[in-house]
Amino acid sequence: MSVAVLIVAAGKGLRAGGELPKQYQLLGGEPVLRRTLRAFEEHAEVDRIQVVIGEGADELYARSATGITKALPPVPGGAERQVSVRLGLQALASSEPEIVLIHDAARPFVSAATISRCVAEARKNGAALAALPLSDTLKREGAKGLAEETVPRAGLWRAQTPQAFRFELIRELHERFADRDDMTDDASLAEAAGHGVALVEDETTNLKITRPEDFALAEKLLGAPMETRTGSGFDVHAFEEGDHVTLCGVMVPHTHKLKGHSDADVGMHALTDAIYGALCEGDIGQHFPPSDEQWRGAPSDVFLRHAADLVKKRCGRIVHCDVTIICEAPKVGPHRETMRGVLAEIMGTDLSRVSVKATTTEALGFTGRREGIAAQAIATIKLPSHG
Ligand SMILES: Nc1ccn([C@@H]2O[C@H](COP(=O)(O)OP(=O)(O)OP(=O)(O)O)[C@@H](O)[C@H]2O)c(=O)n1
Ligand SMILES: C[C@](O)(CO)[C@H](O)COP(=O)(O)O
């Protein structure tokens, strides 16, 4: 299930000014492109990176790509972004990736969470884009440069990158629409072909360096102090008659099921509460009251996704989490890796940051008497520090 990244870096960066195209200018002492490349180099799901570069930029590129092991030899781009994307896709075609993420070199702050969520949505839906819902009131400029109309903003999003697609889909679309010059992003091609594109809510920090002032903003973001927060969660559910339990999103056959208002996924509940704890945002019961009928039998990924989204909305990230499931049976070991994968996907976090463990209580206490299952979790997050 290979995932390739196509980074378009063949623009001239005219609006940004400077002696070099913006992707080669320094940001925090490093070329912008190097930071962008590193975001994908460090992402476990990405296995190769194709960069499209401008004429005469080989040396600048080589300096930016030193030590980037996933990078394929760069290929030349075209006069428009769309042409550069098409040429990059042609270069990737022989290696037949399943999914391709198309990303602007000028967006160095793309997060691992956004990358993971775009890949997951593209696998499900064929096409996905990182985007932000509008938060400002929109005005249409009329004659004499005066605001003349307020445009309703409901349902409007700002498109960002990465934009992720099943490779064959986007490759065919870029060939089909090669003579169109009105497409400013790749999702537009899918839309024009009648293929809906999943919206993946992105972070405001994933800005595109476009104008000179964006460099100052980007430098500020780099210097923004982050603080580390830790939260803990604990949950217990009793057994009742049944034939399976749901633990960390995985259905595990068992002699009983767990009793609860939702699907009683004790591991996922503990983890959700750990994240709420790190955010000082209460607990599951506060966000999803058991008295509310709409959560009866609800799959617990709804809760975990909500907690992870709160981290993202505050421009934070989940650094690490560790869930311990406490029971005599069923055995967790055979399902541990699947559980890690499920949790990582829901949180939009790299697999290497998610741990699931299990223990017994040596036949002591209520778990020892096989009356139910307990789980505890710790989550560590980074949040921008507001002093
Ligand atoms: N012919 C082009 C034009 C753009 N891009 C890339 O597309 C991304 C988004 O484009 P934009 O921000 O508009 O970059 P530039 O075209 O370089 O900027 P400008 O329009 O100010 O010259 C950038 O990473 C840019 O390098 C590209 O690969 N090929
Ligand atoms: C692809 C893009 O970054 C999505 O916002 C954007 O459309 C690029 O636009 P530009 O005109 O090439 O800056």
From TrEMBL:
Residues that bind a divalent metal cation: D235, H237, H269
Pathways involved: Isoprenoid biosynthesis; isopentenyl diphosphate biosynthesis via DXP pathway; isopentenyl diphosphate from 1-deoxy-D-xylulose 5-phosphate: step 2/6; Isoprenoid biosynthesis; isopentenyl diphosphate biosynthesis via DXP pathway; isopentenyl diphosphate from 1-deoxy-D-xylulose 5-phosphate: step 4/6
Domain 2-C-methyl-D-erythritol 2,4-cyclodiphosphate synthase per the UniProt entry, residue ranges: 229-381
GO molecular function: 2-C-methyl-D-erythritol 2,4-cyclodiphosphate synthase activity; 2-C-methyl-D-erythritol 4-phosphate cytidylyltransferase activity; metal ion binding
Site-annotated residues for Transition state stabilizer: R15, K22, H261, T360
Region (2-C-methyl-D-erythritol 2,4-cyclodiphosphate synthase): 229-387
CDD domains linked to this entry: CDP-ME_synthetase, MECDP_synthase
Region entry 2-C-methyl-D-erythritol 4-phosphate cytidylyltransferase, spans: 1-228
Family according to the record: In the N-terminal section; belongs to the IspD/TarI cytidylyltransferase family. IspD subfamily.
Protein name: Bifunctional enzyme IspD/IspF
This protein's encoding gene: ispDF
